[in-house]
Design a protein that fits this description.
CATH class of the largest domain: Alpha Beta
Number of strands: 9
Largest sheet: 6 strands, parallel
Strand order of the largest sheet: 1-9-8-7-5-6
Bound molecules: NADP nicotinamide-adenine-dinucleotide phosphate
Radius of gyration: 19 Å
CATH architecture of the largest domain: 3-Layer(aba) Sandwich
CATH topology of the largest domain: Rossmann fold
Helix content: 40-55%
Oligomer: single chain
Length: 285
């Protein structure tokens, strides 16, 4: 039997969403417009359409408005940039989410970077990433932001820990490494060319598995008392860590589902609420 403490992202998400509802009502009662999260979907990819619907519904459930913009699959970069400019110019829009991936004729990086930094609640702009890296005010990518929030909820002291992040994607591994570095961890980033992953992981006090490979992280590699964060989400509710063997070694571990997963949309909402609070002058940076 494992004695790991489960890091419960579902419970934390529910708690945060209740508090968000109260914050939004306070904003509105103080005479501010109800904040809008705008989502842009280009094309008709069914998985993307589902994600965008989920985000819109989650937004409405906490009392914000959602503006859903659906553009045809043949939209050009110029047309998309104009849509983003219009949203950037609307003071009620406090967050803009461009659903990834966009059709290949679109310059995705140009489109992401057109999003005004104060509305980049999904943490996709180059400027936002730079600011995060310099520990400046910006909204980090939502999954790593959710992981940091979850670790904080359990009062896990990060300073001085050896952290290993498995994965270096722009939305997960890289921003995760920056956030842990800013929290004074000593960070190693592993990827598909890492020569001896097991050895790197064996020295870690904290491991974040974010590689998209089912059950890649094995308990045998871990030292006792480690913190295991599984950001993976593979078909069949399987994470990037082998839960059973990792739980034998870990002091703390995130389950899949119910660990990191629920935190991602919650952080998108949280960032949008923060953006509205900053716009209303209710939050100091
Ligand atoms: P990604 O863009 O495919 O990146 C995967 C990363 O893992 C790459 O950096 C890759 O290295 C590395 N990698 C692949 N195989 C490896 C191996 N054998 N050993 C070490 N590193 C390896 O994936 P992602 O978007 O970051 O997502 C990662 C995981 O998180 C997936 O399971 C995904 O489903 C999940 N995810 C969950 C949420 C959520 O809301 N919970 C959100 C986003 C993603 P190279 O750079 O060398 O190719």
């Amino acid at each position: 039997m494992s004695e790991s403490t489960l890091l419960d992202g579902k419970a934390l998400s529910e708690k945060m969403r209740v508090s968000m509802q109260e914050r939004i009502e306070r904003l509105v009662q103080a005479g501010n417009e109800r904040p809008v999260l705008a989502t842009i979907l280009v094309g008709s990819d069914p998985a993307s359409a589902t994600y965008v619907r989920m985000k819109g519904r989650a937004c409405e459930a906490v009392g914000m408005l959602s503006e859903r913009i659906e553009l045809p699959g043949q939209t050009t970069t110029e047309q998309l940039l104009k849509v983003i400019d219009t949203l950037n110019a609307n003071p009620q829009v406090r967050g803009i989410l461009l659903q990834h991936p966009v059709p290949e004729q679109i310059d995705e990086r140009l489109a992401f970077d057109r999003i005004d930094a104060t509305r980049d609640v999904d943490g996709v702009t180059t400027l936002g990433f730079g600011k995060i890296s310099f520990a400046d005010q910006a909204y980090p990518s939502c999954t790593p932001a959710g992981i940091m929030r979850l670790l904080a909820e359990y009062d896990i002291a990060l300073s001085g820990l050896k952290a290993v992040v498995i994965g270096r994607s722009p939305i997960l591994g890289k921003p995760m490494a920056m956030l842990l570095l800013n929290a004074n961890c000593t960070v190693t980033i592993c990827h598909s060319r890492t020569v001896d992953l097991a050895r790197e992981v064996s020295e870690a006090d904290l491991v974040v598995a974010a590689c998209g490979k089912p059950r890649l992280l094995r308990g045998e590699w871990l030292k006792p008392g480690v913190i295991v964060v599984d950001a993976g989400y593979n078909p069949g509710n399987v994470g990037d860590a082998d839960f059973e063997s990792c739980a034998q070694k870990a002091a703390y571990i995130t389950p899949v589902p119910g660990g990191v997963g629920p935190m991602t949309i919650t952080m998108l909402l949280e960032h949008t609420v923060q953006s509205a609070e900053r716009h209303a002058g209710l939050m100091s940076d």
